[in-house]
Amino acid sequence: MVLSVHDNPKVQNQYENWPYPTPIKTLDDFTKPGGFLLGDPSFEFFNIWPEGHERTLSILVAGCGTFQAAYTAWRNPTCQVVGIDIAKTSLAESRRLKAHHGLDNLEIKRLSLFDVASLGQAFDYILCSGVVHHLPDPVAGVRALSNALKDDGVLHLMVYGKAMRTGVYMVQSLFKAMGLGQSKKDIALAREALQHLPKGHAVERYIAISPELEDDAAFVDTFLNAQDTAFDVRDIYDLAEAADLQFQGWSDRHRYSVMSTLNPGHPLRETGLKLSPRDQAIAMDQLTQGNGRHLFWLRKKACDPKRFTPDFTSEAFWTYVPIPSPYLEIEGPIATGKAGPVLAHHLGTIHPLSLASQLFLTVADGSRSIKSCLKALSERGAQLSDESEAMTRAVFQEFYERGHIQIHMP
Ligand SMILES: C[S@@+](CC[C@H](N)C(=O)[O-])C[C@H]1O[C@@H](n2cnc3c(N)ncnc32)[C@H](O)[C@@H]1O
């Protein structure tokens, strides 16, 4: 394979020598202990197309690594999936999983995403995780992917987050200055050097939440990478604009919303709630410093954003169908009104549910509209008042901002 003129051969060498993520034996080995990949249409269909879409999708997994394409084909058996990558080892792993799981809906090709046009195909959905930030020219990469999207297609990207990785880049720069490469000997030296970092170094928090760093491939990917850059929220909006796309939404939107990040009583909550979604995201990213990566969806510019943006003040709100997130787990005896909190666990967050929220969760079954949810509650004896409408809007907006529900806007 000839690399695209846009590619950096050092990146290819790195992923051939240190395939990442670390290969898994079977997909069950990944999912049984609770592993999943965000952006999966089988889990997040209405986050991707709130307006609805055909279920049989053509999907491209660009820079598929060792198992993302196989996982996607396995979880979405009615969809046709193409996985491309420039590293032979990643492709060999993907082919092994294809054979092991009998994935007839998966094609694996050695191809740079810069050359995706050579496939002569337009896709409904493109997943590209952990790749764009390793490209010498991320905008050119996203443009190439955008050109391979259908008009109503959606691009899901994961890029590194600046806020959480500031210390990582300090350490990378230190290791570069010391001439460290990616050999076993250099990895051992780098690991030892990290033991001697001064207390309170900016990388501490990142290391503390990254147990995978024990693995050499993850260590190289983080601290000895041939090329990587990180993005903040402004950079992401700029990236979309430069690639002639528009921002659609965050995969884990609770991290970017004032409503879900600042509890009532926080001194900045009321002012923060008045900011635009973009400015809320900028502010929350900076406040929490908790995003080591950003996962989000982009669309073609021609698509009317009203198609994918729920409006909680609109008349159409009553026709929306709330779909509980597959990542949501409820702890406690729901809607009994008995003492003790009922907790919503969602993607690492824990949030106590009000009694009204609990009641709505008992009727939001993924098929009822919000209007039917309210009717069902009233048939079960709930007392409705003048405030019920405003309260219903507030409950569902909060569910949505916390990511507890997806919304289908038929
Ligand atoms: C960090 S891994 C991520 C793998 C996978 N997307 C995942 O999330 O598990 C980055 C992958 O992108 C691949 N890659 C880098 N540049 C590429 C390009 N221009 N075209 C296709 N793949 C590329 C690398 O070979 C590597 O397998």
- The strand count comes to 12
Poorly predicted parts: none
How would you classify the helix and strand content by structural class? alpha/beta
Largest sheet: 7 strands, mixed
Would you tell me which CATH topology of the largest domain applies? Rossmann fold
Explain how this protein is built.
- With 410 residues, the protein is an alpha/beta fold.
- The protein has 3 domains: 9-161 and 230-307, Rossmann fold; 163-223, no CATH class; 316-408, Outer Surface Protein A, domain 3 (Alpha-Beta Complex).
- It has 17 helices and 12 strands.
- The chain has helices at residues 9-17, 27-31, 41-48, 68-75, 88-101, 138-147, 162-177, 184-195, 204-208, 216-223, 233-242, 258-261, 269-273, 277-288, 355-363, 370-379, 388-401; strands at residues 58-62, 80-85, 106-110, 123-129, 149-160, 245-250, 293-300, 321-324, 328-331, 343-346, 349-352, 405-408.
- A 7-stranded mixed beta sheet has the order 3-2-1-4-5-7-6, sandwiched between helices. Strands 9-10-11 form a 3-stranded antiparallel beta sheet, with no helix packed on it. Strands 8-12 form a two-stranded antiparallel ribbon.
- The chain is globular, with a radius of gyration of 22 Å.
- It starts with 8 loop residues before the first helix and ends with a strand.
- The model has no long low-confidence stretch (mean pLDDT 95).
- S-adenosylmethionine binds at residues 7, 11, 15, 20-21, 62-65, 68, 84-87, 90, 112-114, 129-131, 134-135, 221.
